[in-house]
Design a protein that fits this description.
This protein has 287 residues and is mostly helical. Helices cover 75% and strands 0% of the residues. The longest helix has 30 residues, at 46-75.
Length: 287
């Protein structure tokens, strides 16, 4: 049939920001682990690694929980104590009734933190394969991508007749999003192994291909949205392709071609990067 595409999706695909965060975390945090597995860097100490992640994520998150709970208590309906307790413990995604309370972006934080806990385990598994560490890292990454797709197929089958919000909750759990982190892990290996030999022109080509792919996925998902939650194939593989294109963008930027540096290494973008987590936490409450 004929395509009738509008362009609102260019400014209403903010949901993809969470996907970017997941892939970016998968990539950046995996690099020192990959270097160690490849014999190119020291072993990553797990306790300091987790402490750094806690210091980066938890204080701003806990402060906002207290602030929003106080605002709701005095201006609207006081949140249930179970809601606050689950959010403080990063356990809100185990309860559909509480997961999207307080701030609708909070569902991403247990997913992100789950990866922090799993990454040292993934590196330990890869390290066990003496003489085959490279194959182990690649195989593990690919298996995690396949696992996420399989999870989405099984999870959707369980909620196929449920309302859309229940489908969203079932599919957007860590097992269904682990492919984002795995694609980051896979491209971290590519970066560690091959970045020094990549020309600036090729780096820019990878970055621009990723950007084009992201925009294409925005248009495709918008075009197919009417049937998306009815079991469209994009439910199962669309997130994976989106994450792959995001990963290409991240990899291309990391390899620092001329165009990449002009777009992403300027002072405005670097400042936005520094405050991005705070912006992410506060943008919905402010709106």
């Amino acid at each position: 049939g004929n395509w009738n595409i509008t362009y609102h999706w260019l400014i209403t695909c903010g949901w993809m920001g969470a996907n970017v965060f997941f892939v970016l975390s998968g990539f950046l945090l995996a690099i020192p682990f990959v270097r160690n597995v490849e014999g190119l860097g020291a072993r990553v100490q797990v306790a300091p690694f987790l402490v750094r992640r806690i210091r980066r994520v938890v204080p701003a998150y806990w402060f906002q929980i207290v602030f929003l709970a106080a605002v709701l208590y005095f201006t609207a309906t006081a949140p249930q104590w179970q809601t606050i307790a689950l959010h403080f413990a990063f356990l809100q995604n185990f309860s559909e009734a509480h997961a999207l309370e307080l701030n609708r972006v909070y569902w991403t934080l247990p997913t992100e933190f789950g990866y922090y806990l799993l990454l040292p385990l993934f590196a330990a598994i890869a390290t066990l394969f003496a003489g085959h560490k490279r194959a182990a890292w690649l195989t593990l990454s690919v298996l995690l991508i396949a696992f996420a797709i399989a999870y989405r197929v099984v999870a959707y089958a369980a909620v196929a007749d449920a309302p859309i919000d229940k489908k969203v909750f079932a599919l957007l759990q860590l097992p269904g999003l682990i492919d984002h982190f795995a694609i980051g892990m896979l491209l971290a290996w590519v970066y560690v192994r091959h970045a020094p030999a990549v020309s600036p022109r090729l780096a820019d080509g990878v970055m621009l291909a990723g950007l084009l792919g992201i925009v294409s996925m925005m248009a495709l998902l918008d075009h197919e949205y009417a049937t998306y939650w009815n079991g469209h194939i994009l439910i199962f593989v669309g997130y994976t392709f989106t994450a792959y294109f995001i990963g290409m963008l991240v990899l291309g930027v990391a390899m620092a071609g001329r165009v990449s540096r002009a777009l992403f290494a300027n002072s405005m973008m670097l400042t936005l990067g520094i405050v991005s987590y705070s912006l992410y936490l506060w943008h919905l409450p402010i709106l």
